[in-house]
Amino acid sequence: MKKYAYIFLAVICVLALGGLFLMNNNRPTGVVDAGQPVVPLAEVQAQEPEPDYQPTSEPIPTTEPEPDEPVMVMVHIVGAVRYPGVFEVPYGSRVNYVLQLAGGYSEDANQGQINLSAFVQDAMQIRIPAVGEEVQEPIVANYPGGQGQQGGQGQQASQTDGRININLASLAELQTLQGIGPVIAQNIIDYREANGGFNNIEELLNVSRIGQVTFDNIRNSVTVE
After folding, report:
1. pTM for the model
2. What is the pLDDT, as a whole number, of residue 147?
3. 84 near 78, Cβ under 8 Å?
4. How far is CA 98 from CA 17, 157, 185, in A?
């Protein structure tokens, strides 16, 4: 009887081992049996929380070109003023502003000989005459070039047949050209001073911030003669 009992136990063990082997082969690869029911992948994905992201309707900021910086000009005022000298003033200032910086008229100033409303330009000299002084030269002189204006007014020698001579034009005159602001106008003046003037209008393309489009817009409005 013991012999048959051992045989019976051996059969039971074999059957048990075979059952375990079959269960392991039927289990999906990589799944660890933790005693919990297997949840389909689609249900797991459906239960995952959505990312914490809220779309916004606000436009994305863009980088805008910086505006031209204010241009400062140097003006020399002499004559019957309290504090003659060279003053740095914003472009577009008038003679009256420079006069106030110089302390105003001196006691012997001939106040009727100067146009206080005239615009100043870079490298301009303003001379305030004294009472009884004989005026023999321009009261307002623009340098370089030497063109002058009596009382701040007069004929502009930098214009030829309606075109602006870029070798003689002032900062203010250059800004009357299409697409030319104070910074580019100053670049034109700096270029002509550094290179002894323009030989032809095409040299404007060598000036900083002047491209083909800007040149095409002004080519019929400028000259070098």
Report:
1. 0.41
2. 45
3. yes
4. 109, 24, 22
